[in-house]
């Protein structure tokens, strides 16, 4: 099977322009207007082609300075490096698990850089690139994957909530937070990240309902990376995901999730809508999970190499670099500097993770309640006494 | 404010919500039908009229959505008081309550607080249809990160709700719906009793009955009948189910030597089981009889024509009292 035909099969599965056009023409006799409408809407919003060619879109313009363009490139390279380091650290036994974002850098950096400081982010467990944009130290993300905590950063320091592992739960938190923003009369926006798998969760559907009913300033950013562990998007939906929004009464748009410029432009527009009282919006970033679901997963069991290779040709970093080099926005010296910075980041990540101590065993009893709880106090005291009962034996062992 | 010699439990809750909303502009009331209608039990009657739609929020009919958005509002600095319409309808929200609400403070290493109060009208005795009479409290008390309380009278209903709202932890507040129209005394200027402390509702010396919520009245009636038979029964109103005030129960059992725990919830793995284990451990040499339990059966809540048989009533509790005293 050629790369091209595999790519075609894959995009068919995701409901691409090509497939939908076919569906649309068959439905034409009944609902010609809707069918035509659908053909148009199923087009990906794209500002940078996989070949690195800049194209315009009638609804989503973007004009970035060379410095901003270089920044996006640097963000993506460093995020990918961090991610690769984490995967390696898991293989070395330093992390219990890692959920790689490989392939989704443009979706995350593009949307992440669209945010204002006062906006608030509710991530899944894979938003390492968004965390980077928010200024969360990447090494803080690793605590939960090493097993020393369940979330090692202060959500309010960077307006970046803790990673949420239960699929889709955070869409409701984002909606509630956005309802609070509304009540405060603030013009901040909230963004909820989730994936194609989460689109099947009731919580995501309920978040759509609540945000639509209250017209809350929340952007739903769905990274459709084509796979929910082993299940392709077609096991989650019969229509392209962005079209779900229409049923709830707010707009949905599909953007090329491997195009950082398009992701940035579309997310900026959605956030602006939210800020100006126009309510929620759904963005479906059409992308691909290049790696395994997590380090515990084995994608060879359920998907073909050809498919992955076809998506390699759409790599988000490669296309931006091609464009930036062609435009003379970056030179070899700049690329080398980013490379060096990336190596240094990798080194820092390795060293920091290896130096992360196991928490004190009494941490089990910490922060369960804000105002305390008699049972926790009792069990803490009992466990401390139990541990202390070994003190004499330890002392003897040391003497010997 | 004032002393009510006779106020219904539901009106006491209404007054409590009103007091909390007046005291703190961040307090919100949200749930299905809580606004215009004032809730299906009218507990929130008039609140939307007085505090506006922005603070008394009629929500879409989606329990997970209600609790999930309440969590988000709490993260933004609000203090949502959520109403789940009936006990049996809480389960769509169970995931949000257990995986998110209960754990978020710990997960954030204490850096965020989620002061959400979830009011659940619970338990039976009102002749309702299926899913409207359940007692799921053990399912919540079992979860670290949650606190669970249940008032048995108007004064506790008034104070405990305000204390729950003022605290920084998530609290499930179980309202004994068959007591909504029971009247008792409320002094809104009294010094409130600690939220998680049990109270001796009726002193006695021969046997301790421990109960909470709707069963406290049954136990007080039992104590009266037993007294006529020359038996002195002490009734402890637990009030809080997480944490449970074992000290007060222990103190009582050390005195009486006998404990019977009474609740509507199924006995198996319930509050009574926990009390039996703890009290046996703490009072082994003071016990004259094993700890007995009276409660629901390991059966779905029955059709309402059978609920009088299913629910612990005067006779079933007296039977357990007699059995305990016979050891």
Automatic annotation (TrEMBL), chain A:
Pfam families: E1_dh. Gene3D superfamilies: 3.40.50.970. Residues 74-344 form the Dehydrogenase E1 component domain. One of its GO terms (biological process) is branched-chain amino acid catabolic process. It comes from the Bacteria. GO terms for molecular function: magnesium ion binding; oxidoreductase activity, acting on the aldehyde or oxo group of donors, disulfide as acceptor. InterPro entries: Alpha-ketoacid_DH_E1_comp, DH_E1, PdhA/BkdA, THDP-binding. Its cofactor is thiamine diphosphate. Residues 10-21 have a biased composition (Basic residues). Keywords: Oxidoreductase, Pyruvate, Thiamine pyrophosphate. Residues 1-39 are annotated as: Disordered. PANTHER family: 2-OXOISOVALERATE DEHYDROGENASE SUBUNIT ALPHA, MITOCHONDRIAL (PTHR43380). This is Pyruvate dehydrogenase (Acetyl-transferring) E1 component subunit alpha. It comes from Streptomyces kasugaensis. The lineage of its organism: Bacteria, Bacillati, Actinomycetota, Actinomycetes, Kitasatosporales.
UniProtKB/TrEMBL annotation, chain B:
SUPFAM superfamilies: Thiamin diphosphate-binding fold (THDP-binding), TK C-terminal domain-like. This is 3-methyl-2-oxobutanoate dehydrogenase (2-methylpropanoyl-transferring). GO terms for molecular function: branched-chain 2-oxo acid dehydrogenase activity; magnesium ion binding. Its EC number is 1.2.4.4. Keywords: Oxidoreductase. Its cofactor is thiamine diphosphate. InterPro entries: THDP-binding, Transketo_C/PFOR_II, Transketolase-like_Pyr-bd, Transketolase_C. CDD domains: TPP_PYR_E1-PDHc-beta_like. It comes from the Bacteria. The keyword Coiled coil does not apply. Residues 7-182 form the Transketolase-like pyrimidine-binding domain. Pfam families: Transket_pyr, Transketolase_C.
């Amino acid at each position: 099977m050629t790369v091209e035909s595999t790519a075609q099969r894959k995009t068919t599965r995701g409901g691409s322009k090509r497939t939908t056009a076919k569906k649309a023409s068959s439905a034409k006799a009944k609902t010609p207007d809707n069918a035509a409408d659908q053909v148009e809407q199923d087009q990906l919003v794209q500002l940078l082609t996989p070949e690195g060619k800049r194209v315009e879109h009638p609804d989503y313009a973007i004009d970035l300075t060379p410095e901003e363009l270089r920044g996006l490139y640097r963000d993506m390279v460093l995020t990918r490096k961090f991610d690769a380091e984490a995967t390696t650290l898991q293989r070395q036994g330093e992390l219990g698990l890692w959920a790689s974002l490989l392939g989704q850098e443009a979706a995350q950096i593009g949307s992440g850089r669209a945010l204002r400081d006062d906006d608030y982010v509710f991530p899944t467990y894979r938003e390492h690139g968004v965390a980077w944009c928010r200024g969360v130290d990447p090494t803080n993300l690793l605590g939960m994957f090493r097993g020393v905590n369940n979330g090692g950063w202060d959500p309010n320091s960077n307006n970046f909530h803790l990673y949420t592992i239960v699929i889709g739960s955070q869409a409701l938190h984002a909606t509630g937070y956005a309802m609070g923003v509304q009540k405060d009369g603030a013009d901040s926006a909230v963004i909820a990240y989730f994936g194609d798998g989460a689109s099947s969760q009731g919580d995501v559907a309920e978040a759509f309902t609540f945000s639509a009913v209250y017209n809350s300033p929340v952007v739903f950013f769905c990274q459709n990376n084509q796979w929910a562990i082993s299940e392709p998007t077609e096991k989650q939906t019969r229509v392209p995901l962005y079209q779900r929004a229409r049923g709830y009464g707010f707009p949905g748009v599909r953007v090329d999730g491997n195009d950082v410029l398009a992701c940035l432009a579309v997310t900026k527009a959605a956030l602006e809508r939210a800020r100006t009282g126009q309510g929620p919006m759904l963005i479906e970033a059409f992308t691909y999970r290049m790696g395994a679901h997590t380090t515990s997963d084995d994608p060879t069991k359920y998907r073909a190499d050809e498919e992955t290779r076809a998506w390699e040709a759409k790599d988000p970093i490669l296309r931006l670099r091609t464009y930036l080099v062609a435009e003379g926005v970056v030179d070899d010296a700049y690329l080398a500097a980013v490379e060096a910075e990336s190596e240094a980041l990798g080194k820092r990540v390795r060293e920091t993770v290896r130096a992360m101590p196991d928490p004190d065993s009494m941490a089990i009893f910490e922060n369960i309640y804000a105002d305390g709880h008699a049972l926790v106090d009792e069990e803490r005291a009992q466990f401390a006494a139990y541990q202390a009962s070994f003190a004499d034996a330890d002392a003897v062992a040391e003497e010997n | 404010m004032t002393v009510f010699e006779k106020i219904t439990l539901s009106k006491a809750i209404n007054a409590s919500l009103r007091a909390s909303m007046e005291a703190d502009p961040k307090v919100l009331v949200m749930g299905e039908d809580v606004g215009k209608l004032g809730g299906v039990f009218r507990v929130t009657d008039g609140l939307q009229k007085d505090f506006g739609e922005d603070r008394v929020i009629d929500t879409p009919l989606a329990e997970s959505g209600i609790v999930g958005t309440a969590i988000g509002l709490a993260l933004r600095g609000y203090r949502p008081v959520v109403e789940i319409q009936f006990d049996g309808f809480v389960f769509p929200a169970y995931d949000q309550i257990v995986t998110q609400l209960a754990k978020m403070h710990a997960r954030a290493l204490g850096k965020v607080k989620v002061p959400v109060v979830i009011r659940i009208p619970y338990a039976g005795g009102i002749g309702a249809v299926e899913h409207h009479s359940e007692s799921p409290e053990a399912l919540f008390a079992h979860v670290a990160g949650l606190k669970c309380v249940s008032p048995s009278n108007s004064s506790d209903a008034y104070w405990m709700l305000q204390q729950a709202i003022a605290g920084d932890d998530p609290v499930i507040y179980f309202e004994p719906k068959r007591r909504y129209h029971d009247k008792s005394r409320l002094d809104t200027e009294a010094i409130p009793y600690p939220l998680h402390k049990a109270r001796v509702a009726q002193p006695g010396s021969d046997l301790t009955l421990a109960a909470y919520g709707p069963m406290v009245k049954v136990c007080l009636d039992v104590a009266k009948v037993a007294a006529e038979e020359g038996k002195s029964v002490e009734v402890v109103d637990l009030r809080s189910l997480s944490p449970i005030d074992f000290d007060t129960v222990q103190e009582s059992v050390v005195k009486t030597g006998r404990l019977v725990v009474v609740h509507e919830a199924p006995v198996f793995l319930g509050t009574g089981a926990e009390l039996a284990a703890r009290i046996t451990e703490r009072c082994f040499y003071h016990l004259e009889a094993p700890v007995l339990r009276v409660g629901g059966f390991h059966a779905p809540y029955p059709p309402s024509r059978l609920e009088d048989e299913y629910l612990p009533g005067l006779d079933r509790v007296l039977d357990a009292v007699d059995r305990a005293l016979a050891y």
